[in-house]
Amino acid sequence: MSATGEQQIILEMRDITKTFPGVKALSGVTLKVRKGEVHAICGENGAGKSTLMKVLSGVHPHGTYDGDIFFEGHPCHYKSIRDSEHDGIVIIHQELALSPYLSIAENIFLGNEQATRGVINWYKTNAEASKLLTRVGLSELPDTKIVNIGVGKQQLVEIAKALSKDVKLLILDEPTAALNDEDSAHLLGLIRSLRAEGITCIIISHKLNEIAAIADSTTIIRDGMTIETLDMHGAEKITEERIIRGMVGRSLDNRFPDHSPTVGDEVFRLVDWTVYHPQDPSRVVVDKANLTVRRGEIVGIAGLMGAGRTELAMSVFGRSWGTKISGQVFVKGQQVDTSSVTNAIKAGLAYASEDRKRFGLNLIDDIKHNNTSAALGKISSRGVVDQAEEYRIAEEYRRKLNTKTPTVDAVVGKLSGGNQQKVVLSKWMFTDPDVLILDEPTRGIDVGAKYEIYTHINALADAGKGVLVISSELPELIGLCDRIYALSQGRITGEVPRAEATQEHLMHFMTKEKEVAGR
Amino acid sequence: MTQVTPTGPQAPDAADAVAATGKTDGTQAAAAKKTNLREYGIVGALIAIVVLFQLLTGGKLLMPDNVASLFQQNAYVMILAIGMVMVIIAGHIDLSVGSIVAFIGGVLAIAMMNWHLPWIVAVLVGVALGLVIGAWQGFWVAYVGVPAFIVTLAGMLIFRGLAILIVGETIAGLPEGFVGISNAGLLGTLGFAGAADVLTLVIGIAGIAAFVFSQLRTRATMRSHNLKVEPGSMFLTKLVGVSLLLAVFTWILSQSAIGTPYVLILVAVLIFAYGFLMGRTVFGRHVYAIGGNVHAAVLSGVNVKTMNFRIFINMGLLASLAAVVTTSRAGAALAAAGNNYELDAIAACFIGGTAVTGGVGKVSGVIVGALIMGVLNMGLSIIGTNPALQNVIKGLVLLIAVAFDLINKRRAAGA
User: Is it the case that residue B226 has pLDDT exceeding 80?
Assistant: First the structure.
């Protein structure tokens, strides 16, 4: 951990300016990374972090940007990723680039096959892969197919692949975004041990607690410019709040808007809800869950990955997940039929998926069409859509939610994560539900936009809706919700009112193991 | 006539992405201009091809009778392409339509010749059969989940086989009324003005008026909602340009030996109806939603199975209409009829800007695509190009059109 004294600079990016047609993505960015350190890069979405890394790795080739890059003292003129990898710079993207039906070993050596005269030496391939897997602490056989291992392990395979290329500088783009706490902790441990081996790491992350825990220095980028580089071991104690201040250019004293709930009658009740795994019908995924939500109330569901949070929500919403589903759903005291999505919507339910790109939006269509897609019936008569009304509604929601777009004709896929999430919210608000289930409503959204989303969630509750929020970020649940259920292995193991909610308290319930019955 | 398509609805178009990202008003306007230009680009390509062949054929291409037969010979492509674009937008494909045309054509002929049904009744039988065949294929795709490529590849074999079984080689001597569908027109219904057929002129003028009116109304609606409209000069150019084209086309057609061909009326009605269906109705919106993101569509309450089933029933319906015009045009049912029709229809879709990955496409676009294929067919035939070489040329046009589109999109994305 000694970051004292003048350490050797392994990478220097000087005055990097990158312009896209009509947009200046980077203007005069400077970055200095010391050899053997973990260097974090922070910034809101769209600040220019990924562009900077693309410039570094040669995705944006030399000549398409201004400025100089020095790696190990030599100027770099990378024309492609191959060039930068040749120098030992390896980037691991947020969306993993593994081939699902090839084995771990094949993936590790993809493009770098262990072959003599074009004939692959499988013995060597698997033996070398085994060594690398030991190094990253992954205890899978090298011939296991990628589809059969989880995201956390896939991330480790990516790192093993990087190590196979004699990496000197490893760049990780949001490495823990899709990982659960356990896998995240393992990954951070691995980064520490790589540092001990002398490998330099650049880590891009939104998770500030991780940065505070692991980084030796942190460079903050805002609006395509370097704001500051913080020494994490210096005299000033660097807190999450300190980093946020740099990222948003102001201090966010309160990451959550103030809200005093006006709680009314019960609006949603789930009774003995039980769901089995669709591929393995003997496995219970949601086990006799009971919960209630009242009008004006924001209720959280906390649980580790695999606890059955999304499965619970999707099975309620039109049986979109699972098999052998049993239990009852009550809306406003009446038992309702939610056996299809159409019926669930009719019953007054709305579900905004955790994966808005895959399940929430038609990315190639525009804002107005997405806005009305779950309630087209409301603006059509005898099957014909009233397009003027559609425009009016889309405009209304654009204003109400402050969606940043030139027009509602804009294609949703081109919007930022925060604005896409606003379109998802608009879509479900337009169905005028009694109960909204919001699954990871702020995933992949930057700090400023998160605050806005929280404000809208509060407004929904104030309008008399019941809101059920699923989140893997405990501070978010504690800051936002009036009451939180903890879910563990498909069972509701605890119910905590806001006043008593602490991360430790929730975590206690979330990790409560199932009792071994009758033995 | 064929260019008068409902305009209000904006099918999701990848090029709109450009318009969407414009950060300032200036770039936004520029981007909007680019979008429009791309949309007009394909019309421009059609005009260029027409002019080219007009020159190459020494003026024969646009002779009145040739213009009339251009529609009569290519009505099947347009009819099939309308159904095919819906299939492709929803993320499927249909390889069987050529075989279905042959099979239903055979049934039509047998109904008239062996069962001695009046030809109108025979047509109804054919249409009903088309719906049944569509339901058959839709069942496998929608409810069993067999990929459409496989279902319709099987259908291609099944219906070609059935066509050969029932037709043998040829059933000729079909009734005059039936043969008239694709070979006659409304000539002289309202008399003549000089050499011009008055009814054709009336239809043409009504078409131009309808086009101008619908454009003005759309623009006014957009304005009243404070939406950006294309610049006045561009709008006016479009209005005048299209109206002029329609006027010239009407004038030429009014001199033809048959006036307005019956099939032109049929095709025009289909274009209007399906343009409206795809652009303005919940049904159409759901087709785009399925193709754009099927998971999001399911979670928005779209019944994807029912929709897929209906899309294939509709394809069967349009295939039966294509069978009627094809059999009528030939005056006989042929076991080999409809050969490669599926490929013509698919090519028209892709030339017309439909996305290979689904979710994007327009009825108006594929009609222009079909016309491009039709003009190529007719022009190359008039100048006496070897049929084998015609295939080579059409193949290249398809390849270049799609490549051009992809390159444009990539440039628009700024990569």
Answer: no
Q: What's the pLDDT at B16?
A: 35
Helix (H, G, I), strand (E, B) or coil at A110: coil
Global pTM value? 0.79
Calculate mean pLDDT across residues B389-393. Answer: 91
Assigned token pair, A213: 């825990």
Q: Which of A225, A212, A204 is nearest to A53 (CA)?
A: A204
Pairing of strands A483-488, A298-303: parallel
d(C-alpha A245, C-alpha A252), whole Å: 7
B415 near A CB under 8 A: no
Beta strand A225-231 with A266-276 is unpaired
Q: Strand B170-172 vs strand A491-497: parallel, antiparallel, or unpaired?
A: unpaired
E strand or H helix at A18: strand A9-20
Nearest in space to A349 (alpha carbons), one of A358, A361, A357, A341: A341
CA dihedral of residues B404, B409, B414, B415 (deg, nearest 10): -70
Q: Which of B186, B367, B338, B181 is nearest to B274 (CA)?
A: B367
**Residues 6+ away with beta carbon under 8 Å from A464:** A264, A295, A296
Q: Sign of the CA dihedral A54, A57, A61, A62?
A: positive
Separation CA A351–CA B170 (nearest Å): 59
Cβ contact, residue pair A413, B299, below 8 Å: no
Radius of gyration of chain A (CA): 25
Neighbours of A504 (CB within 10 A): 8
pLDDT at B238: 86
Q: Which domains does chain B have, with CATH numbers?
A: 40-184+261-384 (1.10.3470), 186-259 (no CATH)
Q: Span A254-348+434-513: which CATH code?
A: 3.40.50.300
**A1-88+168-251 domain in CATH 3.40.50.300?**
yes
- How does strand A323-331 pair with strand A266-276? antiparallel
Give me the residue from B27, B296, B355 closest to A22, CB to CB.
B27
Q: Which residues of B touch A405 (CB under 8 A)?
A: 20
The DSSP letter of residue A40 is E
> Is A78 within 8 Å of A62 (Cβ atoms)?
yes
Q: Determine the average pLDDT of the residues in A51-64.
A: 90
Q: What is the DSSP letter of B188?
A: T
Q: Which of A81, A95, A105 is nearest to A155 (CA)?
A: A95
B219 lies within 8 A of chain A by CB: no
Of all residues in chain B, the percent with pLDDT exceeding 70 is 89
**Structure confidence at residue B135 (pLDDT):** 98
CA separation for the pair A411, A423 (Å, rounded): 11
Contact A293, A332 (CB under 8 A): no
The answer to whether B299 contacts A359, with C-beta atoms less than 8 Å apart, is yes
Cβ within 8 Å of residue A435, ≥6 positions away:
A267, A268, A293, A331, A348, A349, A350, A465, A466, A467, A468
The count of CB pairs under 8 A between chains A and B is: 131
pLDDT digits (tens, 9 = 90+) for A321-365: 999 999 999 999 999 999 999 999 999 999 999 889 899 999 999
Most B-contacting residue of A320, A363, A372, A385 (CB-CB within 10 A), to test interface: A385
Give me the DSSP letters along A283-332. SEEEEEEEEEEETT-EEEEEE-TTSSHHHHHHHHTTT-S-EEEEEEEEET
- Which residues in chain B have Cβ-Cβ distances shorter than 8 Å to A369? 12, 285, 288-289
Domain residue spans of chain A: 1-88+168-251, 96-166, 254-348+434-513, 356-432
| pLDDT over 60 (residue A404) | yes
Q: Are B354 and B409 in contact (CB under 8 A)?
A: no
Q: Report yes or no: A178 and A118 within 8 Å, Cβ to Cβ.
A: no
